[in-house]
Design goal:
Pfam families: ABC_tran. Keywords: ATP-binding, Nucleotide-binding, Transport. By secondary structure, the chain is α/β, with parallel strands linked by helices. The protein has 8 helices and 9 strands. It folds into 2 domains: 161 residues, P-loop containing nucleotide triphosphate hydrolases (Rossmann fold); 64 residues, no CATH class.
Length: 238
């Protein structure tokens, strides 16, 4: 279970997150949607212990991320691509990540095969295409066989076959009882895999619930999104 309760974050005098509250439950894929600058990345960074909130909580199985003894065994994440140094090989990158979390070495070969990089383990990351880098990021997230996955724009750079593959991966993880929190600006992809939606605009949650409830009364998820995130008219405006 991933739970965010009344989260507040300020940058200087500006409040960029206001009372953000939602949950991502086991057995379900939760889509986190919002326009650029809405607060999605800031929320995920706080959840994963990369930034601190000014108020509220963001918990993984009831604990702050920083309190997890072996975090990759509980939650696997991908923010900003693979996170690997360009001079390292894919295998070397995964090996040191595995050692840092007490993960068996055998998992390195297993996840490389799982994400379709079995033949590229000795290739330096600097030679990877964008799509290969995304796959390596997913391999890192899957390394500890975690209960929860937190992924930011995971289909970015993937070809159509890769996109179909990741849909199956996310649905399979949820079907086996895992938790998936998926942040994306590609509404068509979220619509394909999500059970629940959290829509953020202007640093606030404007919709939260099962996808069929959030989109009721709208022809499509895209129509619902634009209606929910449209700026409020200013006083005296037309």
């Amino acid at each position: 279970m991933l739970s965010v309760e009344r989260l507040v974050k300020r940058r200087g005098s500006r409040e960029i997150l206001t009372d953000i509250t939602f949950r991502a439950a086991p057995g379900r894929v939760t889509g986190l949607l919002g326009p650029n600058g809405a607060g999605k990345s800031s929320t995920l960074r706080i959840l994963l212990g990369l930034d601190r909130a000014d108020a509220g909580t963001a918990l993984v199985n009831g604990q702050p991320y920083r309190h997890l003894r072996r975090p990759l065994r509980t939650v696997g994440s991908m923010l900003d691509g693979s996170g690997a140094h360009r001079s390292r090989t894919a295998r070397n990158h995964l090996s040191w990540v595995a050692r840092s979390n007490g993960i068996p070495k055998r998992r390195v070969a297993e996840v490389l095969d799982q994400v379709g990089l079995g033949g590229a383990g000795r290739t330096r990351v600097g030679r990877f295409s964008l799509g290969m880098g995304q796959r390596l990021g997913l391999a890192t997230a899957l390394l500890g066989e975690p209960e929860a996955l937190v992924l930011d724009e995971p289909v970015n750079g993937l070809d159509p076959e890769g996109i179909r593959w990741i849909r199956g991966l996310l649905r399979g993880h949820a079907s086996s009882g895992g938790t998936v929190l998926l942040s994306s600006h590609l509404m068509s992809e979220v619509a394909e895999v999500a059970d629940d939606l959290v829509v953020i605009a202007g640093g606030r949650v404007v919709a939260n619930g099962p996808i069929r409830e959030v989109t009721v009364g709208y022809p499509s998820l895209e129509d619902a999104f634009f209606a929910l995130t449209a700026p409020e008219p200013t006083a005296g405006g037309r």
